[in-house]
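Justification of computing resources. Each target in the renewal requires a structure prediction run like the one illustrated here; the chain below, 274 residues long, is used simply to show the kind of job we budget for.
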Amino acid sequence: MAYLNNIFGVTGKIALVTGGATGIGCMIAEALVQGGAHVLITSRKGEACETVAAELNSLGAAGSAEGFAGDVGSQAAIDALTAEVLKRTDKLHILVNNAGVTWGEPYKSFPHAAWEKVMNINVSGMFTLTRNLTPLLKANAADNDPARIINIGSVMGTVPLAEGAYSYAVSKGAVHHLTKILAAELAPKNITVNAFAPGPFPSKMTAFAIGSEEGQTKVGTNVPIGRVGTPEDIAGATLFLCGRGGAYTSGAIIPLDGGMSVEPPQNLFANAMS
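Resulting structure tokens:
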């Protein structure tokens, strides 16, 4: 057990997870709390973050959590979130850029506004918050224990698949590319930068298709491994990247997609709606 804790544990680490009240963000927050970290959970809905933090604190895990409101939709909002983080802690070892939005509409009516909103939050917001918090991450990084950044991309940013979510898919491709750019930029500061490219996982964003057991079964048939993702799939990758075992990994786009990136389907969610 001591060996596993040394490789995958995050005891004593301070983490910030944006969009951490639901879906993959919540899965990551729980993994970090279970691993021993203190996790700051933020989203636009502060009460939801407080509720999730209380639930995680009731698990009797090695770590702990606190939740509060935080938005990445504008420069002013990101500056306010940065100030709130600095008010709550003088250390930050892990940043998880999970907050994001999507927009689905047919090609013939897909609006320009969908590009402005989605790219602003999913790409610009991620970059600006990372830039703001880089000094705090750098201050708490060491040669053999770098600070860690995980950006949440998507399999839809890897394979040419949109299903009406054009700006979302392109924004996630941009997240993957920006992850590699930042990995090179921040390596001299002892900060690793990686991304997850998840396939279908149960979340608020995917509830329209896999919010039911029937929907999960249908969508799972489009995944080579034959199922949708689980919290354990996210937890394992999170603790690898954030623990000692991931200290030498940077610039990776980790495909948590059941093999979809090497065997892309013709559709992902469409048959769940039939």
